[in-house]
Amino acid sequence: MDGSxxxxxxxxxxxxxxxxxxxxxxxxxxxxxxxxxxxxxxxAMPVHPVDPVAPPGSGSYSQAPFDPWTAFVVDMPGERSVxxxxxxxxxxxRPVPLFNTAYHQFAIVPVxxxxxxxRDGAEELQGLAIPSDAPPVFLLDAKRLEPGAPxxxxxxxxxxxxxxxxxxxxxxxxxxxxxxxxxxQEERLQGAPRTDLAHVLLRxxxxxxxIYAQDPDGTMSPRPVQVxxxxxxxxxxxxxxxxxxxxxxxxxxFGSVIPIPSQASGTSGFG
Amino acid sequence: MxxxxxxxxxxxxxxxxxxxxxxxAIFECCKxxxxxxxxxTVAPFPLLLRREAWDEIAGLSETLAAEAAxxxxxxxxxxxxxxxxxxxxxVRRALKAVPDxxxxxxxxxxxxxxxxxxxxxxxxxxxxxxxxxxxxxxxxFARLMAPFFPGxxxxxxxxxxxAEAVAASVPPGGAxxxxxxxxxxxxxxxxVFLARELEARGRRAVLxxxxxxxxxxxxxxxxxxxxxxxxxxxxxxxxxxLPRSSGWEHFFRGGRTPVSNPASAILPQxxxxxxxxxxxxxxxxxxxxxxxxxxxxxEVSWKTDGGWVLKPALGRVGDGIGxxxxxxEKEWKQIRRELxxxxxxxxxxxxxxxxxxxxxxxPFYPCVGVYTIDGRxxxxxxxxxxxxxxxxxxxxxxxxVEPRQEEAHGRVAAL
Lengths: 271, 415
What we know:
The complex is a heterodimer of chains A (about 270) and B (about 425).
Chain A: H1 3-10, H2 24-28, E1 70-76, H3 79-90, E2 94-97, H4 112-127, E3 136-141, E4 156-157, H5 170-175, E5 180-184, H6 195-206, E6 210-214, E7 223-224, H7 238-249, E8 256-257
Parallel strand pairs in A: 1-3, 1-5, 2-3, 5-6
Antiparallel strand pairs in A: 4-8, 6-7
Helix pairs in contact in A: 3-4
Chain B: E1 7-8, H1 15-28, E2 35-36, E3 39-40, E4 47-49, H2 51-77, H3 89-96, H4 98-101, E5 110-118, E6 121-128, H5 135-145, E7 153-154, H6 158-167, E8 175-180, H7 185-200, E9 204-208, E10 214-216, E11 219-222, E12 225-226, E13 229-233, E14 259-260, H8 285-290, E15 294-295, E16 308-312, E17 322-323, H9 329-342, E18 346-350, E19 357-359, E20 362-373, E21 376-385, E22 395-397, E23 399-401, H10 405-414
Parallel strand pairs in B: 4-23, 8-9, 8-13, 13-14
Antiparallel strand pairs in B: 1-4, 2-3, 5-6, 5-20, 7-23, 10-11, 11-12, 15-18, 16-17, 16-18, 19-20, 20-21, 21-22
């Protein structure tokens, strides 16, 4: 299965949410995967969707398998995000991969496991009868800005950030019956979204979309969240400022190999 | 006299054809940003220009490019005028050293001029003389769209022409660094596309951030390899964000490795460029004719006169533009706030009434960016917007051109 075919499975034409799937990882990655032997079974995970009948916050959350008014944003590390997306797909949601990054052998944010999970899950996903109007599950990698290795010479700096324009607007969500969004992230963050994601979620919240947070690996039900206003919120130049800041703090930015300095040059590095 | 519209009305592709075209654009043309918020950036229809219209804007672009190059050369010698352009201080400092240390040599000089059709004929809203983008769409996407509209052809191949011009300065097998903001998928997709074009011409493409380069005696290296040329896709005004030890000033002056474009290309890029025209020796008749009146916003009553468009001096892709009645209220407030103390970083441009094209009964405002490479027109990059402001929420549209009369007759005769 090449990148285009794999993308077709994860972003099928019949889903309204497929438009937001990010193609960069699919365009450059799948050819590096070894042939699939047999797709490993993906672990089940306990997710407790918001009960559309019960008032949120009442504590009366059910094990309802599907809630047509709820979308998810999965901000979990690496392949765990894909696993959760698959688990929710089995209950009727549409997973939408938003991994806006590139594969490289020496990448500081490992994306091979993500690619492998995407490939391993493709056959099962194809076989699921997900309705074309199923609510979305946006998949992110929580490690996008917290790489396992420092951006040093010889490494491939593939960190990335999300921006409001990477997601549908609140109006679009609401007009497609999405009234609530559950952010699935690690408990240690105590319901506070990562800063780049806060720019997205606060826009949604201000427009009337309810935001909840939950640790998918924990036992707690989703809790309502008041998203704190991040720095430069709604700034005209937020995107440029963010990327400019990231470049300054890294050894040259994202998505390219940080060169090894010449032994003979006598220079001390790349700034 | 009513002017004839420069385009031919077309019907959009069906949803299925459009979806397949979009997917091909993603995987064949590195179009990795096919969706921005709620907007699919790949328009399901082309901008089909009449041949004489394309010939006209291609010719105008060549004149604009020649005038811009002459003005840029004069401005490089006259740093006293740079402050007026709204350039950041570190950029001005780097430019000031050009006369003493020598300008970094250029190769494959690329510019883009953004044309709009109005009731008075063609007008330009701005020029991109520093680091114009849009090559994937202008070359690749247009190639994919053309077969759906028999008899039409892409307006050109700017990516191929740029690669050709850069390759001409580098021996076969030599390395060219494509220098860009590597954090930006939008920028990386352009670089990957141009890298393919360079490699198809037997040159090795190295994707790099500007601080990956080592500068030795003015020559650029990556590791132990000297680079034959640099293709810069990193805005000049962002270079000072890098550490000084990165040697970023070599993009302005003192470099010996040829660059497309040297960072002095930012001089005519500023939206405040027209404010100094009267002080230049270089005559700019085409610019004066095609660019609407531009003033310092502190000198005009833009708060009460809705006929002015406010633009950041170094704004890009139409972002940050203030247009009364069009810019959303929240953004408009922000712009007013910015202008209260920062007027010298902005320009006020007379608003013009663009003529929309109609597709399936809906109006779309088109903008055709015409590239010039070494002064010759190389093809067009199209965008369409539902409002008369073309910004990051606009759609990319393939620019196609009707065949020449003699070609059309030839085809009929062959049948």
